User: What shape does this take?
Amino acid sequence: MLFRSGPFDMSYQCSLAEAPTERDEALWTAAYLAALTDRRRDEIDRGVSLVGPHRDELQLQVRELPVKGYASHGESWSAALTLRLAAFELLRQDRAGGDPVLVLDDVFAELDSRRRRRLAEFAHNAEQTIVTAAVPEDVPSELDGCRYDVSNGGVTRVG
Assistant: This one.
């Protein structure tokens, strides 16, 4: 984990009551079809899909405790940001045409100075990074670059 506050773990929790334990497409297809058949009436009554991988969860843990309900605000932010940065790294490795654009939308305000510096180090190695911040001072100086001020419907180049 980029922002180390303790051991970080992630596991996949399938929402199917009778989920197969093997990686067999036919077994999974049969399990989902059975669940869809069982819940069809409920789905029609509620007007929402109750079965499918979109109902599955990622269980995140810091120091062997679930992030949801136990982690501090900073730890929760760090865990979410770590997952985003991991996705960026996967895309980076999968693309022959260069890095994807790293977009950091007002994340520095939620981080302490140590985590800000570590994120800035990570972002500095990206080919292109777009950073937004409500408070310009929240952005570490390591990410100095071309800056724009957006206010009252106008855009002004600052640096």
Remarks:
- The helical segments are 25-46, 67-70, 73-94, 113-124.
- Residues 20 and 29 are 10 Å apart (CA to CA).
- The chain is about 40% helix and 20% strand.
